[in-house]
Amino acid sequence: MQCKKIVVTGVVQGVGYRAWAKRLAKELYVKGYVRNMKDGSVEMVVCAEENIITVMINAAKKGPAASVVKKVEVFDTDYKPDSEEFKIWI
Q: Is 18 an annotated catalytic residue?
């Protein structure tokens, strides 16, 4: 299992992006977290097999219906999940 940090910019706060990401992660058995950032972006760390991470990245490019995704950046991370679930960090 590997982990990737995904930073999503655009209209991604106040549109249910975090709840949408959590639902998708639960369906795919992804570990990690999602949180709003002060700059208006959303940060996700997803931990899973490479093909599942690719699914999450592609889904992040679309987001929930109310979002307008402008850019998705993917970074390597040393994050180690501390539980079996995907969390919404406040």
A: yes
